Each structure stands twice: as structure tokens, then as C-alpha cells.
Amino acid sequence: MKSLETRRTTNLLTAYTARTYRPTSLSVLMLVIICLLSMLLCYCWSQYVYKDPSQHRAANSKMESTNGDKAILSSSNGRMEYNVKERSSSVVTQQAQPTWNITSCYSYHGKKRLKSQRELQEMGCERKLPKVLIIGVKKCGTITLSLFLDLHPEIQTRIELDFNPNVEDWLKQMPMSTSDQISIVDFPGYIDDPKLLQYMVSNIIHDLKLIVILRDPVKRAISDYVHVSEKITWLRKTGNLKELAIYRSSKRSSQNITAHQGYEMLGNFEETITDNHGNLNTSHLFIRKGIYIEYIKNLFENVDRNRVLIIDGDAFMKNPLLALKKVEKFLRLSDFFTDEHFYFSSKKGFFCANVTGREDTKCMTPNKGRSHPTVPQHLLQQMSDFFTPYSLKLQEYLNQTLTFSYHESGK
Predict the structure, then answer these.
(1) By CB neighbour count within 10 A (0-12 exposed, 13-18 middle, 19+ buried), where does 273 fall?
(2) Residue 331 is part of a domain; what is its CATH number?
(3) Within this chain, do residues 170 and 315 fall inside the same structural domain, yes or no?
(4) 285-300 per-position pLDDT tens digit
């Protein structure tokens, strides 16, 4: 009896439930719409995730594609993500993404400025001894190379900083950098003292690497002359004559020689580098600095050759990307620079940087806006004839093609 009563109760509840929750046509329609919307959202998301990097642009970031299988997202907020995707002909698969997030210790709005002390502490910024020195040669593009390298998110550079035997004081002059960055110091005078470099490698920075940039020695000599001339003019104008040495010329008794840091200046460029008979004064520093083979041999006698990268300065001015890619490889940095980061300015006559969020670095300035003197053709040829044998020896010694070995300036 009790079993019959239970079955009746169960049947009544089942019938009631079926009547109460019977789906209406409206509820079925709503369910269909929800399913369609879900499918649409899934499709849109898949398109976003697997979209080709060359087409994907964010408002404040730029996707750079390299070698067909790498993409680097450089964002204006200073954070960088490095994503790797493997592609096949029919399927696109996304591998685990090795990422490197770089948070800069500096802000770059108009001018490079150090962030607040609180931000520096939060990011773990500190001053570190350099891993790399750009050591010269003077007037070959060391500063421009430093400025362009500073655009790399894993580099912080310090321009024209001489070595200080008090390492603690030297360290205080280094740029702030994060744990993901290395410091690079540029000072062209380092190449003049290979013994110092040997000491630094042996006693201070054991994994130190060196970069040397060289250019056409004829152009270098003229640029150096303009630089020293302006320096002397400025010292005279400010009344700071302690750095100058003024004495009577031995070859032209009616004129005085003004010397600055070993550079003797006598009249114009031609008068300065020639003797009384119009022959090239090959002992003058403007000329001696261009005999690169002597500097490089002395360097390799004191420092392991594998620590040194030689950059062709003339090739760098014509195509900065190739030189910067060599530096990336030499220093084992992440693949960052692309041709989109640089453009040639027909107005200025040289390359300019175009890196998102780094408007502080503009264009390379080979002459820093200085006007160069008009040099007679015969003197250019004389200088070219003198330098060419040394440049060819250097090319053979390095087993490296150097564009200035052919001396277009002397033609």
C-alpha cells in the first residue's frame, strides 16, 4: 500500500515538473542566440591570438618581425616582450613564450631623464661596471654608435667617460640599469692605452668586451682638425688658457703654434699638416691617428682578439642597421634592431632613429653640424696615397673588408 502511494506521488511530481519547466519557443530562441554569440566570440579571439605579427599593431607599440619566426613587441611604456611562434604551411602553433621584460630606469619624453628614487628602488636599478667599452678611434663615430646602441632595451650607455683608477668613483658615474641590462661606456682615448685595457681585463672586469670603430683616415683627420680648432677657440673665449701651449713655430718663424693635448695647430688645415716644402707631416697627430694598423696590433698584443669587435665606420654611416646587428650578435643580445628603426633623411643627408618611445634619440650627426674646410684636391690625394698601404695591411691583418681601404676621398 505504501509502495503504491509512493509511486503515485512520484508520478504527480514528474508531471508537474514537466509542465512547469517545459521550454517555450522564446527560451529556445534565446538559447540559440547565446550559443551563436559564444561561437562568434571564440572565433574573434582565435583570430586575434593567431593574427600575423606583421599586421598586428597596438596603439602605442610596434611589432617587429625578424627571420620569419621571431617577433619583438617594443612598447612606448618601456616594457618589452619577446615572443616566438613556429609556423607550418597549414597550421600555426604557439609555443611556450620565452619573454624578457625590460623596465628602464629612465624616462624618454623629449629627453632622457632618471626616474624618481622610489621608482628606481622598485625596479631594482643600480650602477654597474661596464661590460663593454667603445674605445675609439677618435672622430670615427663612437658617440653616434653609443647613442644608437642605447636604443636597445638591454643596454644603457655612458658617453665619453674616461677611466678612473678609483673604481668606486668610476662606478658612481655609470648609468643606472636594471638586472636585465648591461652598461656600455664610450671613450675614444682608451685605444691609446692598451696596457690600461689589459689591466682592466685582468683585475677589474674579467668578461670585458671592446668595440673599435674606424673610418676613412682622410675624413677622420679633417674632422679631428675641426674639432680641435673649435676646442681651442672655446678655451680662448672662456679665458681657460691653462690647457693651451702657445710657442713660436720652427718652420714658420713669423707664426705661433697653438697646441692642445699634443695637437699642434698652425694656420689652416693644409699649413698644419704639411712642412715648408708642402710635404705631408706624417708625424702630426692628425695623421698618426689614422694609421690604424699600429693601434690594432698594439691592442691585440695586450687583449685577447676574441674580446674585440671592429666596426667599419663608413659602412655604419651608410647603413647603421648592419653594424648594430653585428654588435647584437657579438654581445649576445636579443634580436631587436630592424630596418624599421631607421630611415634616411634626405634633408640632413644621413640616417635617423625611429624607435617607438625613444624620441630622445634622433639622427646621427657625423660632423655635429660643424662646417669643414675646403681641402685642395692635391692634398686629399697626398693623404690618400699615404694612408692606403696601411689600410690595406689592416684589412689583411683583420681578414675583414674595410670600405675605406679604397679611399674614395682621394680620388
Answers:
(1) buried
(2) 3.40.50.300
(3) yes
(4) 999 999 999 999 999 9
